[in-house]
Automatic annotation (TrEMBL):
Classification via NCBIfam families: hydrog_HybE
Family: Belongs to the HupJ family.
Pfam family, one: NiFe-hyd_HybE
Protein name: [NiFe] hydrogenase assembly chaperone, HybE family
Organism, scientific name: Pseudomonas japonica
Superkingdom, natural source: Bacteria
Length: 158
């Protein structure tokens, strides 16, 4: 298995490099924010329960939910958008293959970042997002069975 800490650190390093080069001086950068990763944990997502690392990337220009698939998981082609079910939510992730940090999939949460007063506010929001996505699913109502369901419907009609 790819060492997750190296992959996550590589993702952060790559986006720091982007912040210092391609994004430098652009008016959409929040001056109080820096590139950081937050809350990456091993998780299964989607209908086929793909396993990988899910967490948040905060930058001065965006906050993204990032999926780093496990070594044995499929990697959609770059630019491909795929919907995953995470917790109670359905989210669209775009695939990227970067020469520095490798394959990752990203779902935009916020951009630009001016709604956040400071880095702590961005971190707090990221933590809340992850908490909501990792919340256990609500218990499904008990299956009444076809006979009970039918009789219940008939009783309600009377």
């Amino acid at each position: 298995m790819t060492e997750p800490n190296l992959q996550i650190a590589g993702l952060a390093a790559r986006f720091r490099q982007i912040a210092e080069t391609r994004m430098r001086g652009l008016p959409l950068l929040h001056p109080g924010l820096a590139v950081e990763t937050l809350g990456f944990a091993w998780q299964k997502i989607g209908p086929d329960a793909q396993a990988g690392w899910l967490g948040i990337l905060i930058t001065p220009w965006c906050m993204n939910l990032v999926w780093l698939p496990g070594d044995d998981q499929p990697r959609p082609a770059e630019g491909c958008v795929r919907e995953y079910r995470i917790g109670e939510e359905r989210l669209d992730f775009a695939s990227f293959d970067d020469e520095v940090c490798g394959h990752y999939q990203s779902c935009s949460l916020f951009s630009p970042m001016f709604d956040f007063i400071d880095a702590q506010a961005a971190r707090d929001t990221a933590t809340q997002v992850l908490s909501l996505l990792r919340r256990p699913p609500a218990a499904a109502p008990a299956d009444p069975g076809r006979r009970r369901l039918l009789f219940g419907l008939l009783e309600n009609r009377a």
